[in-house]
Amino acid sequence: MNFKITLILLLTCFSVLSQNITGKLTDKNTKQAIPFATIKTGDNSGVISNDEGYFTINSKNKTLTISCMGYQNKSLTIKELIILNYNVELEESINQLGEVFIRSKALNADSIIAKTKSKLTSNYNHELNKYNIFRRITDKVNFKNLTFEIEKASHVKKTNLESANEKLKALSKKIQESDMVNFTDFKGEYYALNKDSSKLVVQKATELLDSKNDFSIERIQEKTQNIILKYLDTTKTYKLKSGLFKIEDSLSLNDENQENNKKKEYNVSHLNDGTRAFIKQHLFYEDSFLDELLNFNLYEFTYEDTAYNNNELTHIINFTPKKGKAKYTGQLFINDNTYAVTRVDYKYYKNRHGEKVNLKFILGIKYIENLSRANILFEKDSTNMYYPKYLKYTSGSYFYVNRDIKFIENSKARNKTGFSFKIEGDNRTTEELLFTSHIKMNLDDFKSIKQDSTVTYQQLNKFEKTMWEDEQIIEPTQEMKSFKSDNKL
């Protein structure tokens, strides 16, 4: 082989093998992407393929083992992954053994659930664990209706009033046309004393956000306030009076630049509390949310099928509400040997929903939690205990607010400006948590951990893969990769 060509190949391989590399999992027959597959890089470490089948690992790992419900395990080296052009095809596992097993044992869904409940304490241990985690939060808002209008302002010139309303109308149009989405990523070490106590050490954090198009309820309030203030007496300060927003003692146009001076920091205590609540909701223990899904008084269970997960026979059990107070439907994947639940998929059943507030004709407020669905994966370690591997939860709601706001001048005249505010739309939040590794620890270890009060994050206007080089993360979806900040007003 030509020396130059050989050198180029060697340099290419060296470059590839010294950084993160991305692969994709597909079904060998259908060529469809395979999400939520486990890519193990060690006994207690590894990542998960995302919704589009992609995964990213560090090339320093020599080999990887891929497992997924319903597919045969596959082990390969980094070199073999490169030869396959980073596309790995998985073959479906043969289900003949499962069919024979069902016929010979004649197990029913209720008996499997009963055994599962009896094994919860021996299969899961939520105390004194250290996890390396990567968390991603994706927030989206779709505004269906936005109306802002100054209605009463006798002390304001007519031309100023018309100009302000034109600005408010333009803002409303821009908000409705904007692609309202932002992404928050952070990685770190999560120390769990138990399900109710934890510490978090954040090692890196980023936020992917178009700051000019940040149209959260709070930011919309700020933007509308600033437009109105420009057409009032800018030498004075004002109070806001509304059933929706708090009264502020000295609101003025000078407050507009406060956001620019705001430190880009997260409160670590809030991140810890949110992470702990998220994990707690998706663990098995007595009277937990997941424990309720195993409640015979609330749910009816039916046997669906068998499949193989990591070369182990798994029962697939469907559940649906038995009584009106139960809200969810989904599937439980239960290991035949240990009776541990290795995966849970759930969502709202038919037209059922979460919290609902309808004071539309009294206070001008309506709110309905209309989306709640999750995918939860557990993984067995070398001690035959099961730990969370990947959690994904998507929540959504409909909101409507129609209120009047008054700007009250801080002066003897106490001039008032009436402002109507109507907003209607849907919001959706997807939370993902990847556990890249875990180890047991003792109480002294936990006590010695110091949790910082804040952590600085880097705000990005587009996804930069180099930010997470050499890190085990959740591979971003195409939506996140194509995100770009639009700073034009």
Please tell me the total number of domains.
2
C-alpha geometry? globular
The end-to-end span amounts to 58 Å
Low-confidence stretches: 1-18, 243-247, 256-261
Q: What is the strand tally?
A: 22
Q: Which percent range fits the helix content?
A: 10-25%
Ordered list of secondary-structure elements with their pairings:
Layout: H1 3-16, E1 20-27, E2 38-42, E3 45-48, E4 54-58, E5 63-67, E6 74-77, H2 78-83, E7 87-90, H3 96-105, H4 109-118, H5 120-123, E8 129-152, H6 158-177, E9 180-194, E10 197-208, H7 217-230, E11 238-241, H8 258-261, E12 265-267, H9 268-281, H10 289-292, E13 299-309, E14 312-321, E15 328-335, E16 341-348, E17 356-359, E18 365-380, E19 386-409, E20 416-440, H11 443-448, E21 454-456, E22 458-460, H12 478-481
Parallel strand pairs: 1-7, 10-22
Antiparallel strand pairs: 1-4, 2-3, 2-5, 5-6, 8-9, 8-20, 9-10, 11-19, 12-21, 13-14, 14-15, 15-16, 16-18, 17-18, 18-19, 19-20
Helix pairs in contact: 6-7
Write up what this structure looks like:
With 489 residues, the protein is an alpha+beta fold. The chain has two domains: 91 residues, Carboxypeptidase-like, regulatory domain (Immunoglobulin-like, Sandwich); 353 residues, no CATH class. Helix content is 22%, strand content 42%. Strands 8, 9, 10, 11, 13, 14, 15, 16, 17, 18, 19, 20 and 22 form a 13-stranded mixed beta sheet that branches. A four-stranded antiparallel beta sheet has the order 3-2-5-6. Strands 4-1-7 form a three-stranded mixed beta sheet, with no helix packed on it. The longest helix is centred in the middle third of the chain and has 20 residues. It is globular, with a radius of gyration of 27 Å.
